[in-house]
Amino acid sequence: MTPAAFGWLLGELREKAGLKKAGLAREVHCDPSLISRFESGERVPAVEMVRRIDQLVGAEGLLTNAYERVGWYREVAHPEWFQVFAEREAQAVEVLEYSVGLVPGACQEPAYAAAIFERGQTNPAPAQIEARVAARISRQTRFLADDGPLLSVVLDEAVIRRVVGGPQVMHRQLCYLLDLMQRPNIVIQVAPLELGERTPAGTSFTLLTMPNGQQHLYSESLTSGHFTTDPSEIVRYSRAYDWFRGHVLSVPDSAALIRCVMKGLVNPMSVQGSNADLLRPLAWFKSSSYSDSNGGNCVQPALNLAGSHGVVLVRDSKDPQGPVLAVSPAAWGAFAAAAGRGEFGGI
To answer: Domain holding 259: CATH number?
Structure first.
């Protein structure tokens, strides 16, 4: 099956299920334009997203099976200096990663990867970016298989807080990390910033264990990759990784922190592109006792269309065209309860 044929099937199943592109995009937390590109065969969806769509359209595994039959990555190419790592990673039975800068390639969402490749380029060639993204995402296939090798990743907290590609892209990337954390062979943990200088390694590195038991240590500079099988270096970085696993946040706590960071991205997202539609209010409400005809001294809350995002919108009643703040229902409820008890002194 070709990518175009898969895209046609996706579109047919979506329409049969009575879902518009925008509606499906909200359910899988992506931009409607990305759904369009999936259906045209221009972009490769992540397997976790395909499985979710399969459930939403009631395809009973048909879409997932079709996805697995597409030759998505038959003609991909890695940079020459990276090819050795890609080849060894493809054979490794265990991959241990520590990253201080970016989400590792094995865990990147396509839009996040594209933003990285576009960085620093004045006029990036779309075809070249697409090819490089395809090559990077192709590395994930074996980790997403039911019998995939162990992938253990420790991310410095700065990685999940550093916005790459804008709030919308970063939100999708963090959501993808949460999806990956549900897989039995993938462990993702966050090293909190409070560890500071106590961390035993100040640079990103990867430890690969090959089928014969041999280990390889890999790290990168700006323009090249570096491999070593030096036993002393392997021991040093293996101990560093063991230290990380004993001092970083647990998987549940790491997931909680990632969700917290995602909530912080909601407000910037609310004013960008199609997210303005996702956070469009159904109706604004204001107090009849505190607001006069000119707005008075009142804030206005509103429910939003994307109820699954769990967002309450708030604005100044005197400035209805001004900034809008998006907060969680729990935060709004706590604020309203405290205001009702007079805890803000009439402010």
So the answer is: 3.30.870
Six-digit token string for 211: 């089928």
pLDDT at 320 over 70: no
The span from the CA of 196 to the CA of 180, in Å, is 27
Band of pLDDT at residue 271, cut at 50, 70 and 90: very low
Same domain, 171 and 228: yes
3-class state of residue 49 by DSSP:
helix
Taking a C-beta distance cutoff of 8 angstroms, is the pair 270, 245 a contact? no
Q: What is the C-alpha end-to-end distance of the chain, expressed in Å?
A: 64
Stretch (H or E) spanning 179:
helix 167-180
Same domain, 63 and 86: no
Q: How many CB atoms lie within 10 A of CB 202?
A: 8
Q: Give residues with Cβ within 8 angstroms of 61, minimum separation 6.
A: 54
Predicted TM-score of the model (pTM): 0.60
Size of the chain in residues: 347
**Residue range(s) defining the domain that contains residue 320:** 279-340
125: left (phi over 0), alpha (psi -120 to 50) or beta: beta
The enclosing H or E element of 231 equals helix 231-247
Residue-wise pLDDT tens digits, 219-239: 876 566 788 888 899 999 999
Q: Give the pair of three-digit tokens for residue 78.
A: 């890695």
| Number of domain units in the chain | 3
